[in-house]
Amino acid sequence: MTLQMTDANLTQEEISDLVAKQEASYEKALYRVMAKKNEYINDNKDYSAKIYALKKIIAINKRAGNSYAVKRDEVQIQSYLIAKSMNELLRDVLIALDSKDIETFENKLNQYTAEHQKEFSLITKRDYKEFLNIAGTAPVIQALRNNVREYYALQEINNDLISYLYQYDKKMYGLNKFSKFHLVNVVITISSINAVHALDTLLSTVGLSVVKLIIIISLIIIIFFIRKLFYYVFERYLMHSYYLHEYAEEILKRTQRTIDILIIVINLNMIAYVFNDFSSSTLISSFFNILYTLIITYFIYVVINTVALVNLEKFAKDASSVKAELINVGIKIVNFFIFLLGFLFTLYFAGVNLTALLSGLGIGGFAVAFAAKDTISNFFGTLAILASDAFSQGDWVEINGKEGTVVEIGLRVTTLRTFDNALIAIPNGTFASADIKNWNKRKLGRRIKMSIGVKYDSKREDIKNAIVAIREMLQNHPDIATKDTKYEHMAYQRGKIAKLVSKDDLEGVKRTLLVFLDEFADSSINILIYCFSKSVVWEEWLQTKQDVMEKIMEILEENNLEFAFPSLSIYDETKGCSQ
């Protein structure tokens, strides 16, 4: 066909027809080569034997003086060398089709083509066109002319080969993916249908083909069913897992949306892979790897926090001795490392050199540490709070004039809810150097202290009897702590260190009860009442205190005593009496 196109007598229409036929023949040749790729790779035609034989004949003809016969065989050898070089190029390209991505394949194609062209230029540096016009009908002259035509035709074929390799590089790379599954013939059959071929012509403008569309639709359907299967397998695994079965229901509920997003991203990744001729560019790979990293990081975060949430609810129901703030801080530390690892993987897939980055952190660590000294101080303050057990979440504390209930001990700050319902955030570093008053660190005894003033005209005996009666009332009161009130101290468990301290003071147990005549004040004789309620709960303490006060009023009435109030007596010297 190439020889026919060199014929000067062809019309433009005939040349166009031959070009179209040539295009079709090259496409069919491509399909044929791809269908039998391994055979072409293993069939290495080097023409060595033929070239060796021709060189022997050339030597004989040179001695005989047959110059045309020598040129005939020289041209034939050059044609064999061109054919050999083209076969080697084609074989190298077919092997390169197994590259991990199309970019690598295209780089190898450029390399092999450049090497081939360098070799080709050395083979074809001799010009034999002068022998096309030599006169004569002798067989040797005709054979020489034919060999020269084939020689130049092979050069044209070589140029066409390189041109079509670049033209069909993506198609070849895509077809090679099917060759692994022995589906090349199926794809070729589908693509050879006239209607499909017409559609492919239209779809090729957007990088698609009918085969690609079939594969994409098939992948969507397959992944949809795999999604159902994945849910089933994941649920079965959670239900039968020794460590996770009790959290299975919550994990499934909280991770369903994340799994759906992951399935969608996988689907998009597969579609992009097919659309890009079954190859993945560096940019696309990085983009989807970053997406996978973000989704998996969030998935791990959800699973761990779901497990923590279920355990926290269980601890709350069981009144566990495990400190809630310790769990909260532990969860935050774990979450920090989860997101740190996710961030590092994201940077890695984005192309950042982590070795250089981490090395740089070592150099700039001093500056970072200095800039973040308050954050570091607060973090160690958190550890100090947890280690010292000075207070816990829910405790009523007072620090630097701020008073309220501890809401949460965080990594950086501790939040208090004041009694007027405001929220205060105190940096944890503050607690290292501040006085902390914890009203909840008491197990038995909340103080009731009052001073009762009676009038100066009260009789001594009545006051004495009232004091005795009040003391007896408190001693026998069911809600007042006394020396006879029993309290079982906390037993030291294995692993705890015994301390040489008062157990009452360590655990917050007070049973002091005092009722005494206290002082002669300006307007009254004061009786000191100092005792502790058994309950430390504010409402129960108020109820006990109210009951004690009512009983004291009753005792004073029974002993003819009246409460004194601030008063002023005026002495009139002229009358000798006071008013």
Automatic annotation (TrEMBL):
Q: Where is the Mechanosensitive ion channel MscS C-terminal domain?
A: 448-563
Q: Does the keyword Cell membrane apply?
A: yes
The Mechanosensitive ion channel transmembrane helices 2/3 domain, residue ranges: 332-373
In which broad location class does this protein mainly occur, judging by the first location in its UniProt entry?
A: membrane
**Source organism superkingdom:** Bacteria
| Molecular-function GO term, any one | mechanosensitive monoatomic ion channel activity
Topology of the protein relative to the lipid bilayer = Multi-pass membrane protein
| Cellular component GO terms, alphabetical | plasma membrane
Give yes or no: UniProt keyword Phosphoprotein: no
**So where does this one cross the membrane?**
181-199, 205-226, 258-275, 287-312, 333-350
Which keywords does UniProt give here?
A: Cell membrane, Membrane, Transmembrane, Transmembrane helix
Domain named Mechanosensitive ion channel MscS: which ranges? 374-441
Q: List localization entries.
A: Cell membrane
The family database entries (InterPro entries) matched by this protein are listed as: LSM_dom_sf, MS_channel_1st, MS_channel_C, MscS_beta-dom_sf, MscS_channel_2nd, MscS_channel_C_sf, MscS_channel_CS, MscS_channel_TM-2
Name the family the entry cites: Belongs to the MscS (TC 1.A.23) family.
The name on file for this protein is: Mechanosensitive ion channel family protein
The organism is Sulfurimonas paralvinellae
